[in-house]
Amino acid sequence: MKTKLLSVIFVLAFALAACSPSLTPTTAPRMVPTDAPVAVLQTTDTPAEPLAASLPEIKVDAADYSYTAPETVPEGWVRVILSNSGSEPHHVQFLRLNDGATVAQFEETLMQGEGPALALTKQVGGVGAVHPGGTASAVINLPAGEYILLCFIPSPSDSVAHHAKGMVKSLTVEAGENPAAEPQADLSVRLKDFSFDMPASLPGGPLSIQVTNDGPEPHEFNILKLEDGKTAEDVMKFLGGEAGGPPPFAPVGGINGLDLGVTGYAELDLAPGTYVAICNIHSPKADGHQHFTLGMIKTFSVGSAAGSAESSSFPTGKFIKSGTTDYGLAFNPDGTFSAFEGDTRFVNGTYNAEGNVFTETSNDGGCETNVSFTYTFDGKNLTFSYVGNPADDIACAGRHADFNNVTYTLSQ
Predict the structure, then answer these.
(1) Which long-range contacts (CB under 8 A, 24 or more apart) does 23-26 make?
(2) Contact at 8 Å (CB) between 163 and 137?
């Protein structure tokens, strides 16, 4: 398939190359520390266990222009921790060689072009680009076999891809027992042609995000923290070569290229601010246009830590549903809520509210989580409207009836 699928961050790198020699962002994101556990959202008072604490770890140091990484790792779920000790931005892409393909064959084919080389592999993820001095991590699933680790970002000085300067490393994933189970995530994101199915607002602090490619084209989930006052439109203009100067964003990791049906976990520690999720991969069905030009770029906000509504103007208290006398919703300042009828509470969960967006982050009623709504509140009446298509949530009949352009009145 003749396509530059391995532009997973390629265009981003070209954009960074157009800026000044110093690529350290002016708004430095807080990245996941190497030894930091990832917290999970809480719905009870029971302390959380560290996410997937028993996962084997692959520590990868990215320098200019080489990787320091293990020669062998066990098959199964592993945490990849990428530290950038270089002076340029770097990422790490994991490619599993197809059965029968060899490292030598891949390297020889890579000289002919990235597309032919990619045809010899399967994209299983990796850690998205991080700025010099940054660290980020991701959890990916590695079936036994031979792998290639490489960086496709070009240098700003000569536009030569880092892999052409030696930033390619082989890795053997050995068959054997790996007791680590697939981790539990705080939320899930689906990648589609061409959109991100994700909330409009995320909590700040450590966060594990399950990322699955529903395709059918390969996709990535890269996260850019916007500089103050910048927008997704500024990002698109910059990446499209329509605007010069320093980049209006800082890369903060995420998940690199995933083939159809592949799942990985992005581990992030996001400071409050405005971000975009973006996919830079080219589409073979759309004349090679990058996915973000086809709509695969999404702005989202990050506020206070999960389970807290203190930073929002979202109202708390008991609210009675319009047309009823004792049925409604109760929202608490600690970020928990419940649905009630009379004295009976029959659904409990957690929420996050930023700006005018309310996101249900968990519930014990069996409904899909991380569904978002815009809301208005006039001091007495609270009204919700779905972000996106309400029909997508019709399987959750109760929530569909309670939040689909429904008004609640604050109980006295």
Answers:
(1) 23/87, 23/88, 23/89, 23/131, 23/132, 23/156, 24/131, 24/132, 24/133, 25/131, 25/225, 25/227, 25/247, 25/249, 25/250, 26/227, 26/246, 26/250
(2) no
pLDDT tens-digit readout, 229-283? 889 999 999 888 888 788 899 889 999 999 999 999 999 998 888 899 999 888 8
Name the band, by pLDDT with cuts 50, 70 and 90, for residue 17.
very low
- The overall pTM is greater than 0.85: no
CA atoms of 370 and 97, how far apart (whole Å): 35
Q: With contact defined as beta carbons under 8 Å apart, do 235 and 257 qualify?
A: no
Radius of gyration of the chain (CA): 22
Average pLDDT, the chain: 82
Annotate 110-148 with three-state secondary structure.
Answer: HCCCHHHHHCCEEEEEEEEEECCCCEEEEEEEECCEEEE
Considering only CA atoms, which of 214, 196, 194, 152 is closest in space to residue 283?
194
Q: State both tokens at 97.
A: 């060689």
Tell me the sheet residues that pair with 78: 140
Q: What is the dihedral of CA 68, 70, 75, 81, to 10 degrees?
A: -40
Distance CA 339, CA 398 (A): 10
Distances (CA, A) of 307 to 171, 278, 299, 382: 40, 26, 21, 20
Domains and CATH numbers, the chain: 10-305 (2.60.40.420), 317-410 (2.40.128)
Main-chain phi, psi angles of 232, to 5 degrees: -60, -35
Q: Six-digit token pair at 42?
A: 């809480």
Question: Using CB atoms within 10 A of its CB, is residue 370 exposed (0-12), middle (13-18) or buried (19+)?
Answer: buried
